[in-house]
Design goal:
Layout lengths: L2 H4 L12 E7 L5 H15 L6 H19 L3 E7 L3 E8 L24 H9 L2 E6 L4 E8 L29 E6 L4 E4 L1 H7 L3 H4 L8 E2 L10 H6 L2 E9 L5 E12 L5 E9 L29 H6 L7 H15 L4 E7 L5 E8 L3 H4 L3 E3 L14 E3 L19 E9 L2 E10 L7 H45 L4 H12 L6 E6 L8 E7 L5 H10 L12 E2 L2 H17 L12 H11 L3 E8 L2 E9 L8 H38 L11 E7 L10 E9 L2 E9 L3 H20 L4 H13 L8 E10 L5 E8 L5 E3 L5 E3 L18 E5 L4 E5 L1 H4 L2 E2 L2 E2 L1 H10 L6 H15 L8 E7 L7
Antiparallel strand pairs: 1-2, 2-3, 3-5, 4-5, 6-7, 6-11, 8-9, 9-10, 10-11, 12-13, 12-17, 13-14, 15-16, 16-17, 18-19, 18-22, 20-21, 21-22, 23-34, 24-25, 25-26, 26-27, 27-30, 28-29, 28-31, 31-34, 32-33
Helix pairs in contact: 2-3, 3-4, 3-11, 9-11, 11-16, 12-16, 14-15, 17-18
Keywords: Hydrolase
Protein name: SpoIIE family protein phosphatase
Pfam family, one: SpoIIE
Amino acid sequence: MGMGDLGVDTRTRSSVITARAAATFDPVGRSVASARTFVRDTLQGWGHGDIVDDAVVLTSELVTNAVVHAGTAADVLCLRSDDAVRIEVADRYPEREIPLQQSVHTMGSPDREGGRGLQLCAALAARWGVDYTSTHKQVWFQLDLPERMVGTRTAGPEIATDLLPLADTRVRVAVVQIDRTGNVSAWNEDAETLFGYPAEKVNGKPLTDLAAWPHTPGTGTGIAEALQLSRWEGSYGIRGADGRVIPVYASHLRVRDTDGEPSTVCLLVRDHERAVLQTPLRGPAPDAASVPDGQAGADPFDAFIGSPPPDDLDGLLQRTVERARDMLDGDAAFLLLATDDETELEVRASTGLPSARQRFARVPVEAGTGRYGSARMPSVHEDLAVVPGASPLLNGTGMRSVVTVPLKVEGRLTGSLGVAAENPGRYSNEEALRLQFAADRIALAVESARLGELERLRRGSLSFLVEASDLLAGTLDRDQTLALMAQMTVPTLATWCAVYTIADQSSEPYLSYVLHEDEERIDGLKALLSRIAPPDPVPTPGARVWSAPADAAHQAALRSSMRTLGLGETPQLGMGIGTSLATAAAVGGETVVLPLVARNRVIGMLTLGKPTEEHFRQEILELAEDLSRRAALALDNARLYSERMAISQSLQRSLLPPELPEVPGVEVEVIYRAAGEGNEVGGDFYDLFPIRDGAYGFAIGDVCGTGPEAAAVTGLARHALRLLAREGFGGPAVLERLNAAILDEGARSRFLTLLYGELWPQEDGSAILKIVCAGHPLPLRLRQDGTVEPYAEPQPLLGVMDDLELYEQTTTLDPGDVLLCVTDGVTERREGTRMLGDDGLADVLTTCTGLTAGAVAARIMRAVERFASDAPSDDMAILAMRVPEPHQD
């Protein structure tokens, strides 16, 4: 079949299968989301989170092909071997062939509905293929497992005392042991001091309840994966007892006890004390400038970074700034990476600076006062006090001198590396040359790691947006859509989120939903945002910075502090300093606003925020912009659906008769059920109204069909009946004129069955009835002795013939008698091949002797509902009238 042209591998698997999971999904749209969840949970459970995003995207496409396009059930099988995971998706429609004769490039455009799953397999999978059997077609793909990092033993050189890293007088190392389930099993005294929790409060709890893991879709290792590795080092946060996140540097080592039970020992120090735990370099790392060109056995990259180099971008950048600072004997160092358009630089690593405040901050590249005009060339500033704003990153840090050099790859600016000192005049061109030499050696490795991170982020973003679109498309409820918007952004994209909505162009933005990753912060955040003016509804796409929340939070915290110190008015009840400071910390970082634009109109704003002095990275803002476009359309669809439902229900309620009148000497009860979700009125209708003194008209009818078209004829019939009856026309004349009015509707006309009558209560306790039954199910009369009989004769229905000759039948209801009128939705209630029918209705009515009209109607409806398990597919109306027996003294 030309497999060689495709690069498709269908060789028999030789690896030993170590784990297996399987599930079958029905041929319905929601199965796609269920299949994604199944694959995600399976791979996460196996500890392979690094391939989850690719597996979920491929599974989503292949299951969609099966359950949506092929219309069959999909069987999903996950197989794990030592070095790979294979996922098989089989459907039961083998006649649908895969175009294996074509090359991957001719499978079709990415915009086509068909063929995209195979294109993704070719792009993402290590191997893939198609197998056929007599009953199934199976598409499979294989994802290779990356090699796990292992621990290494290394030692560093002796260095002068004044070059050793700074640490507090008492360095505390928290020792935390985690069992195989991820729960804390040991917690030492230093951990209690660092984080504020006594051991008895945390033992037995999952570490994930305390860890603030830096999560970006598609990048980095998750906490669960990190705990499963043989050894791991890196930075994350621990939420202290006071609610604040404490940045820590951690070293994890996985061990087993004498019984073979595995656990993970975690050593943690404050992040600025990372040198206590960070694995030292393998050997002395001489300055890059001191390595002669062409020296045998000396790799300039290893000479600067050390060997082995970190295998992740953040680790590589952090190692780079630390080595640069040490090489030039600086007090601080920083590294910035260029955005794709090279117009801005983004802070990605620093040492000796408040890294939490600077991380992901962006500065422009173009020349000008206060800008990074020197980013494309090496630059030395001997005294920043003389040239304020020359290096915006260092404003307010106390640094006086700085040297910066560019990172370039093939002549293209990819970043900037800088070293700063607290004393002026520290650096000269000689130091700039040394730093440039080092930067030239690491630029390619940094760019390669950056591109790898962007690719992982792209794949994670694709998976994130697929699931977001699926969730947003699954509801038309406005409030639920708002909640989903916020829950998808927090904490994946931001620490907190607020959604503003705009009802119409003349309305002000309204704060509709607020969410924070810490539930205890939501009320304070909502109160703060309610007190400040909302952002302007600007339709310009993209994220824009909004400083009002952070400014307001800082002012509120300042006022609260002054009141507490007795320098201002007495604090109000419930507005203590703790609440104000916590709120200020929660919103003190960067806040951005993205417009929600749907159908060329701004319908709201999505506001995302970070905690104190944190910034968004550009990739996250681009992902948030994609999400905002999808969310805006989903929110506008929910609004339109709600408006149309409100209009529909209002119009339907106008077609229902007003409250039924009291008829002297006669009990009346009506039960009405319209078929279809959201319908209050359908093709069936009823009415009871006074005609003149002592006379009442009643009607029950059924228009052909259901829904709005039938409801329109319902309104015509009900209003025409009242008008004609009150004009003095008898029953036959009323129906003949209604028949003419229906036929005048032309193409919109529908035939109508109608039972119309006049009710005349008598002084002796009986009631005289005059009835015309035009094609409608005959009314049934229940006598006191339990006998049931039809109470009229059938005549032609309305809306079919021009000339009708109808007649009226007169009879009397004696005390204790019941007259039951129903529509065919009652008698034609079905369960398989069985139908309730006229006889079944009569049998139920015979059991109603002595019941009131309300009890009779309720028993009939209960019997109809119990006759079949499915929801009724036709409208139903029940009208019961009973002449009560005289009271016995």
